[in-house]
Amino acid sequence: MANDQPLTKEAILDAAAQVLRRYGPEKTSVVDVAKVLQVSHGTLYRHFPSKAALREAVTERWLLHISDSLQLIADQTQGSAQERLHLWFVTLISIKRTFRKEDPEMFSMYANVTLESVEIIQHHVNYLISQLAQIIEAGVKAAEFHTEATDVTAKAVFLATSRFHHPAHAREWSSATSEQEFENVWQLILTGLK
Amino acid sequence: MANDQPLTKEAILDAAAQVLRRYGPEKTSVVDVAKVLQVSHGTLYRHFPSKAALREAVTERWLLHISDSLQLIADQTQGSAQERLHLWFVTLISIKRTFRKEDPEMFSMYANVTLESVEIIQHHVNYLISQLAQIIEAGVKAAEFHTEATDVTAKAVFLATSRFHHPAHAREWSSATSEQEFENVWQLILTGLK
Q: Mind listing the pLDDT tens digit for each residue in B37-48?
């Protein structure tokens, strides 16, 4: 990137993602990213004071990309809430699996940030649970679902499916039975919602 | 231990657990355990050819201790299947949390073996799921639960509660809301079973 372009946060994160992918999360430094952007180290340190801050920002952007895609599903109005809820989960699970398979270095970074940066993850998870609450609420209004406390139920549904989307279980995702296992848990949850 | 006693598998595992606890899983060698038992290295290598074999055997024994305790709950006949199922989970969760809190070195070894020794864990998990199937089957007979395939449902119930008993989630267990979160997932599952 030429250094006469304005240094946007997006441009920094694009460069950081590129460098992280090339050298790996352990070896990438803020200085490496500054080099790619052809800016002084100081300029970059002003935005990202540490390697950890850089990794967190890249992860945060990736998480936002996931949750924004899923919000589109939660916002749909055609079809039943049940179909929407199923699609929401299948999409989340598929995004995670594809990411892990096609970009293992970045996935492993994301999995580590998940363990360390409690606040970023909490924010992300709360956003996802609010989408589930939105779908369940629509299902309650349409008399498809029956639940007293939508928020509590949304969180319970999210936690009950942890096995299939929480990165701590990534090793188990490649099992041949994983897809069928999700469908079985889904049936159990769905019966609980109806 | 005096070397005139017969060298039982139990005695070896007791010594191994003691040494593992003292030096940590990384530093403990088969030789250290032989020293405590006052036997030749060769004698011990005949039982446990490697450090990994020793760690697995200690973990396996611990897992069997858990599953045998839980089998007692599955075998109970008084009270409702619902109460039994709840007690089974609360007991499993409490055993895991107590172990992690009071014996962190050993818990971390167990968590690692969980990731590496797929066969041992699969065996353990299948045993636990068979206990759940036993309780659910009793519930179906008593017309408390309604499910077509007890085995599939038992596995789904186990997977849906992973968050609360799978060691990959151990960090999340210390959250102040974890107990309430389990109860919310439990309510969702229970409604699905009824």
A: 999 989 888 888
